[in-house]
Amino acid sequence: MTGKLMELDHVSRTFPVGNLRVRAVNNVSLAIERGEILCLVGESGCGKTTTGRIVAGLLKPTAGRILFEGRDIWAMDDKGFKGYRKAVQIVHQDPYASLNPVHSIYKILSAPLFRHGLAVTQQEAQIKIRELLQIVDLTPPEEFLDKYPHQLSGGQRQRISVARALTVNPRFIVADEAVSMVDVSIRVSLLNMLSRLKDQLGVTFLFITHDLALAKYFAWEGRIAVMYLGCIVEVAATPRLINDPSHPYSRALLSALPEADPELTRTKKRVVLRSLDVPSLLDLPSGCTFHPRCPQFREGLCERQAPELAQIGDNRYVACHLVAPGMAS
Amino acid sequence: MESMAATTRDLLKESVTSLRLLTRNRIGFLGFLGVVFFILLAFVGPSLIPLDTETKVAQIYQPPSWGHPLGTDHQGRDIWSQIVHGGKDLLTVAFLAGLISTFIAVSLGSLSAVVGGAFDSAVMGLTDIVLTIPHFPLLVVLAGFVRLNTVWMLALIIALLAWPSLLRAVRSQVLSLKERDYVEAAVALDLGTRHVVFSEILPNMMSYIAISMIFAMTAAIYAQVGMFFLGLVPFSGNNWGLMINLAWTRGAIFFKDSIYYIMAPVTAIAIFQLVLVSMTRSLEEVFNPRLRAGE
Amino acid sequence: MEGHKGGLRPPNQVIKGGFAPLTPRGADTTLSVQDLWVEYRTRRGTVKAVRGVSLDLCRGEALALIGESGSGKTTLGLSLIRLIPRSARIRAGRVIYRRDGQEYDVLSLGSEDLRQFRWKECAMVFQSALNALNPVLKVWDQVYDTASAHRQAYAHRTRQRALDLLRLVQLDPERVLRSYPHELSGGMRQRVLLAMSLLLDPQVLILDEPTTALDVLTQRAIIDVLRRLRKELEFSLILISHDLSLAAELADRVATMYAGAIVEIGDVYETFYRPRHPYTLGLLRAVPTVTGQMRDLASIPGCPPDLVNMPSGCKFHPRCPYADSRCQEEELELAQVGRGHAAACFHWQQVQYELEAREGA
After folding, report:
1. Judgement on whether residues A209 and A294 belong to the same structural domain of the protein
2. Looking at A58-67, B39-48, C231-240, which range is the least confident one?
3. Residues A28 and A77 in one domain
């Protein structure tokens, strides 16, 4: 089965800050295919987490539509929206904040089962929860049922978060920096577990991260979308984006990343930016928001017109006047 | 049947855990024992020790002795028996007032934080108004209009003035807990508002709420005693506040032998407040999930 | 601990020879740690945060301490300037600081000496550095306070030094000194702190996770600034990080910590290309690189150890693919495995053999 599962159609979201309005997400359009992994990559404050919350239905966009299987989720009736809620789950970043400290693991996992009639008796819930714990590699499951979150390591808590999301059999998971706060030595096993969910349960992923290396590893067969100050600046298949980035910002990011290889990292070619300062969201630069820092800045063009995301190749989109000329809005 | 047995067993296990945690903090545990003592004194004591109502002219203002451990009053009656009988109403009113004001504060405060908008503004406005009213003068005025001669009426009046500061605290706590990731996860799982409030948010505030309720109780005791002392409450029967009022009007503070009459109720009140406040030290431990889970 | 009055005074005892394989021959050491043990007391029991660490920091060198959370690397860093929390105790060991041919026993400095030692000799920038500036004071006032607390209150000289340093970290000095902290971005604040830590010209700078909360481009700016500062000012650097790439980028030598002990230490190229401890190898295999082909990645099984109830023998044995019965019983000390390269593992030769076989294939 292929086809668009989730579609963001010119989605924007602003937040009031004092008398001003901050544009956290600006006119984002994206389509995610069934069974695909899309990585949303960007630095803090670029709007990737807001986008994730919008996709999860936790935040209403101020403009634009979210289409799930072709239906606008904010135009759905109550029952339809509840169905959407269950179909799309979110896994948070902080393993220490995402589980309620006062409940045991059994209680955390059984609440959604009972609520949605997926289990009626305690025995049914027990069986279900054991299965879920096995899926997320927490074995033997009996050892975890009566534990409280503080008795688990960061990695184990993240697995519980994933298991909790899986209680309602979601088809789409938003993983917001889901492995960033977990120890380096166990990150990969968490990622592998998530990949397995994709393969075995057919879950589609929106994987939000600031770490391009993780995005590369997790979404090698998927796509990466790079966000900067609320806009998507480039979307491409992962190998192409990593090996041959088009947008000057993607290039700067990739070149700036230190690598866990002394020879490689010390000889890497760097893109030198014109400015080190990130513009404030309250006072965004005119035209292309990257122009004050962009090494390829062209006067008279970049600061005047905002570039639109335009196709420059097979399944590859860039928002830059110089890479995709003549596409200005 | 089986599940009921299991629930009973769980409840028993929980109680044992709670008791064990109570003992962790020495001052808190002493406070707890003190509170238990006062409750037994006030509610069980009267059926064991009869109230001495007989006037004995020959025994006026006697110092403590074996027969009268706290001495006698201006009519030669035993003070100890009056202390035993005088706690019940005071404690009941304090408990009810604490319970009612905490209930108002928690329910309105959390609702206000969760619902927000105009409801929140209205609640906050009301809170500010009640907070700025000078309580004691109002009680004095109210005493002139309302017959404050039942336990319930008195508790209600005190409670209606006591909730605002706790409400503000509850509201701000809920506002911050509402932003937690696990609350968002519960929303995404469509667990319902009731689950979010009662299972995700409130359990994280239990120790705070319990401690606030204790403080509301201590405030309610002072409010009552103040009113009794000023003679504003036409209460029949016997209680510590009334004892102070009587002792005061009889000039008990002026003589060495009569001082016990006024000191006995004052000390009883002071010690009861002290044990209540001490007990709060242990409540933190009882509600801490880390400690509950046995770590 | 006895204090010395007046300026820094050398300790009475003569220091015995340091740990041989850890010091590159000929280089003089600025800081040497000898068999340091640090413990925390908690509700659950004693946490052995640092267990018998010995290490030498040479003049002008950059040493990276890498390891996962709970490996003891931050506690080790804090112990070097005796800033450990109240619940912690240094059980044993010595920290010897050398300057101008004199030796100072850091662990027995008096409180005034200790104050002079921090900042002036050995400065530390913390993980939560972004909140380390006082929000109600302008940056210049904080710079001046720092200087005057250390009796360097010549305003114009301090100002000149501050201006030079801020320029070195690529900030507009006049503008920054006039600002309040909230007017600066995270990356700018981090650079201000770096500059402030170098205000009194310390010989040693300890950085605890200096780029963890920062964005990639800001992180790059900090790395470049650090490299430049080291070149200009020639201080020694101790870099505490869980981020292997940061160590690869900045360090001359790398020490891997696990369960409070150093399990491998060596030249950065040696450690990254020829790791001999299975834990270092495991860490390297767990981290993806962006450039180049997709590598096979693997996590280390299990969880980091519980520092209250540690496993017997080698603390890594429950997670180690090479472990045998010997590892369960005996914990090995660091032993030389190459030039200036030491590891604490019975099976380092097997690690080497497999690594070489893999590369040959």
Report:
1. no
2. B39-48
3. yes
CA angle C267, C268, C271 (to 5 degrees): 85
Dist. CA A222–CA A281, nearest whole Å = 30
C81–chain A Cβ distance below 8 A for any pair: no
Tell whether A253 and A213 lie within a shared domain: no
- pTM of the entire predicted model: 0.82
Answer yes or no: is C331 within a domain. no
Using a CB–CB cutoff of 8 Å, tell me whether A188 touches chain C. Answer: yes
Q: Is residue B4 part of a domain?
A: no
Q: ipTM value of the model?
A: 0.85
Q: What local confidence, expressed as pLDDT, does residue C15 receive? A: 35
What residues form DSSP beta bridges with A72?
A67
Q: Are residues A123 and A272 in the same domain?
A: no
Say yes or no for a CB contact (<8 Å) between B190 and A167.
Answer: no
Q: Say if residue C2 is exposed, middle or buried (CB neighbours under 10 Å; 0-12, 13-18, 19+).
A: exposed
Which residue among A228, A244, A260 closes a domain? A244
Asked if residue B18 belongs to a domain, the reply is: no
User: Which residues are CB-contacts of C123 (< 8 A; sequence separation ≥ 6)?
Assistant: C197, C198, C200, C202, C204, C205, C206
Is residue C277 a part of any domain in this protein?
Answer: no
C293 in contact with A at a CB cutoff of 8 Å?
no
The residue in chain A having the minimum alpha-carbon distance to the alpha carbon of residue C285 is A185
The CATH number given to whatever domain includes residue A76 is 3.40.50.300
- The domain boundary, picked from A244, A264, A289, lies at A244
Q: Which of A209, A210, A179 is nearest to A194 (CA)?
A: A179
Domain-located, residue C60: yes
Q: Check residues A8 and B253 and name the one with the higher pLDDT.
A: A8
In a domain, B15, yes or no: no
Q: What is the pLDDT of residues A248-284, one digit of tens each?
A: 999 999 999 898 889 988 888 888 888 877 888 888 8
What's the distance, Cα to Cα, between the start and end of chain A in Å? 35
* Chain C: touching chains (3 or more CB pairs < 8 Å): A
Q: How far apart are CA A128 and CA A117, in angstroms?
A: 12
Q: Give the tens place of pLDDT for each residue, C23-78.
A: 444 458 899 999 999 999 887 788 899 999 999 999 889 999 999 888 889 899 99
Give me the domain span that covers residue B262: 24-292
Q: What token pair was written down for C20? A: 């041989």
Q: Which domain holds residue A62?
A: 4-244
Cβ <8 Å between C248 and A192: no
Range of the domain at C89: 20-258
Q: Are C267 and C253 in contact (CB under 8 A)?
A: yes
Write out pLDDT tens, residues B223-269.
888 888 877 776 666 788 878 877 777 776 677 777 777 788 888 88
- CATH of residue B272: 1.10.3720.10
| Angle at the Cα of A242 from the Cα atoms of A237 and A246, rounded to 5 degrees | 80
Span between the terminal Cα atoms of chain B, in Å: 32
**Number of domains chain A contains:** 2
CB contact (8 A) between residue A265 and residue C298: no
- Hey, what's the torsion of the CAs at C20, C236, C107, C150, to 10 degrees? 160
Coil, helix or strand at residue C213: coil
Our count of domains for chain C comes to 1
Residue B8, in any domain of the structure: no
Write out pLDDT tens, residues C233-279.
889 999 999 889 999 999 999 999 999 999 999 999 999 999 999 99
Calpha distance C287→B202 (Å, rounded): 41
Are A15 and A119 members of one domain?
yes
Same domain for A93 and A162, yes or no, is yes
Are the Cβ atoms of B182 and A97 closer than 8 angstroms?
yes
Whether residues A137 and A217 fall in one domain: yes
Q: What is the pLDDT of residues C285-302, one digit of tens each?
A: 888 888 877 778 888 888
What pLDDT does B294 receive?
Answer: 55
Average pLDDT rounded to a whole number, residues C183-205: 85
- Tell me: do A17 and A164 sit in the same domain: yes
